[in-house]
């Protein structure tokens, strides 16, 4: 009864509508709120079921996601939560506009330097959940953005407390940096939909921007920032600018210093940095950049980044989760025989028991023992992948290689579902 003593956690619920949905967002929001609060406990995170029985939700909603939160429990009672329900209808994946370096009339095939897409976008749905990191990098980034919004809203004096709205992610290739930027942009567009009626992601490929004719790059930078300024002119539009491979910016400047590049290069880089500086006074823009080589990045750029986050190769635990998500997906599509793949927590528990002397390998025919055996097998594979320094990208490709190798053996009929342990063994053979 003493409800005032209860700690209440802000919990975000994201509701994706289908393309045909015509119900008002407000109506859906309050129906979902009532639906979620009708449960005794709420899983954090979870994908609740049962809303399909309510006709108004069934006709409009595609999925309800109760998002992860930094709370210490796996489930909360309704008294312990403050629900924030966000309703969104993603734009079609192909609503892209492209900017290209066509002003000089040259045609070299790959001059695409920037693209814009509407957010939230179908292409980036599910990306956030698919990215697995050992520590709470994802929530940390969300918190940072919330902090800047809070300060902007309070109209804090920029001379006293200031930030540049620039985030830099760096680390080895294939660790999901670009994907994370897109996923974060998508997440923000959903979470901020109550204050910004629309959102856009503008991606700049610095490599193609700086690798060719600097005199044209100069014009291109100008055009790019004209477009960005047009986009953020609308105060109810939120704009995320993603600058990929930001180290090429530096290469251009260093080259100019050493006299090997025309001084145009230097002017272009300076123009870009000046334009970035101008953006820091705008509330509705966020600049995210990625780099594989932090040592090679222009110090002037590093100086402007508020958050410099290292993204490392996945740990053994993250690898287990990534491999598990790959396996679950191909099982759900009927390519591999059905099986329940234990969660990371379960697998870790089985490992402790196995170390304490349990011999699971002896009876893999018992369905329960089979699950344990499989978990231990994937854990071992995860260790092997870790010692080979495999990136997230390489891990997501592993099932394809294992499957193709298996099919290449030609011992089974093409339509037979694959045995999971055979696939895992195939993957292990590739990794070693
Ligand atoms: P980067 O920009 O660091 O080179 P990308 O964003 O291009 O990496 O990542 C390529 C793909 O690799 C992603 O789409 C994703 O499928 C996979 N991937 C990379 N890192 C992870 C991770 N930590 N968790 C899950 N998937 C990952």
Polypeptide structure, described:
By secondary structure, the protein is α/β, with parallel strands linked by helices. It contains 15 helices and 12 strands. It has 3 domains: 86 residues, Vcp-like ATPase, Chain A, domain 2; 215 residues, 3-Layer(aba) Sandwich (Rossmann fold), CATH 3.40.50; 116 residues, no CATH class. The strands form 3 sheets. Strands 6-7-9-10-11-8-12 form a 7-stranded mixed sheet, sandwiched between helices. Strands 3-1-5 form a 3-stranded mixed sheet. Strands 2-4 form a two-stranded antiparallel sheet. About 2% of the residues have low confidence. The N and C termini lie far apart (59 Å). Adenosine-5'-diphosphate binds next to helix 5, helix 11 and helix 14.
Keywords:
432 residues, alpha/beta, Vcp-like ATPase, Chain A, domain 2, Rossmann fold, three-stranded mixed sheet, 44% helix, globular, binds adenosine-5'-diphosphate
